[in-house]
Amino acid sequence: MTRLIVAAGGGGDAVAAAMLHAALYGDEDQAVILTYAWDRLLIDPVPGPRGPDDFTGLEPLTPTVRKVPAKARPIAPAGSTLPRLAAELPHAFALIDPSHGAEGVTRQLEDLVTHLQPTSIDLLDVGGDVLARGDEPTLKSPLADSLTLAACGQVNAPIRLLVAGPGLDGELSPEDLRSMLGPLVHTFTAKDAEPVGPVLDWHPSEATGMLTATARGVRGTCEIRDAGLPIPLTDEGPTLHAVDLDDALSRNELARAIMSTTTLGQVEALSREICGFSEIDYERNKALWLKEQRPTKLDAESVLRQLAQFEAEARSRGVTHTTFRHLTEALNLDGSQRDDLRRLLVKSRPEQYTAPLWRIPAAS
């Protein structure tokens, strides 16, 4: 049997899809994970999602869908985590190409459904921003989720919408989401997190990282993103809920507006009109800013000194954990230095590594 899991926002949603498959379906079924190649600027210095022309080594899966095998490589200067995911996880990763808007993504989904005849189709979002109206002041990245939701809403096949880790992406609060969530489908456990544990040692996803941390029992407040957003790690963190797809579409104004789009540019224009911004514009501006910065050299003594100051300030804010993605930016390091930073800190202070998060110790 084949299960099709659509990673609504790409990035960490694809890793969470692998955890979902192991938890709900086990090893007897095969999984095809349909996802964007959109890893943000820490991994990919080129703004926006990557398409098939940005890779070498892709394999045809259907006339409109390409598989990303372990041998695939992004064409410089682009970057992508998908080939490494394909190498380390037992699932097939298929690429969402958003260049033809919602109509294009709908065709890709229809092709996959026809080709695979999947036993089930799940649309998975970590955090729950797929349920945003579009005008929430905390909303940061609605485009990808709205695009996959718009496409799934037009496919003539039963699709189950699932939200994991309500509020963990920092875009909608757990309180705002609670009334919109349907039945509890599963609560992830430490055992469920085991298959993706090694992946999250290097993958930069913050929301999925916190999802697995809460599944392992971590509780507290985690600071994420370049802005240092505080995210509560509670018993709601490892939960997985079903949500009515039609209800989500009726709520998500951007998803409804982009259903007939045929280009990514049209999707962006409608995002600017409805949400007041395009997250790809944000990436374009940040990419220009990063080009002008001179990152600090990763010197162990200097890093540990800066870390001590960061931890003292974080404690004063009530923070108990942070992500290596946030630490990289807080210490003024380049995204390419993130793995080196993690290795340095885990080696020097292993007791603070609460995989995949960094624990802020209490004041001595």
- Identify the strand order in the major beta sheet: 4-5-7-2-1-8-9-13-10
Can you give the helix content as a percent range? 25-40%
CA(first)-CA(last) distance: 54 Å
Per DSSP, what share of the residues sits in E-state strands of 2 or more residues?
A: 15-25%
The stretches of 5 or more residues where confidence is low (pLDDT under 50) are: none
Fold and architecture overview:
There is one protein chain. The protein is of the alpha/beta class and 364 residues long. It contains 15 helices and 16 strands. The strands form 3 sheets. A 9-stranded mixed beta sheet has the order 4-5-7-2-1-8-9-13-10, with helices on both faces. A 5-stranded mixed beta sheet has the order 12-11-14-16-15. Helix 4 (101-116) packs across helix 5 (143-152) and helix 14 (324-330) crosses helix 15 (338-348). The longest helix is centred in the last third of the chain and has 17 residues, at 300-316. It is globular and about 60 Å long. The mean pLDDT is 95.
Task: Briefly characterize the structure.
This protein has helices spanning 12-24, 40-43, 82-88, 101-116, 143-152, 174-178, 190-193, 206-215, 245-251, 253-257, 264-275, 279-292, 300-316, 324-330, 338-348, and strands at residues 2-7, 30-35, 55-56, 59-60, 66-67, 73-74, 92-95, 120-126, 160-164, 184-187, 220-224, 229-233, 239-243, 321-322, 353-354, 357-359. The chain is α/β, with parallel strands linked by helices.
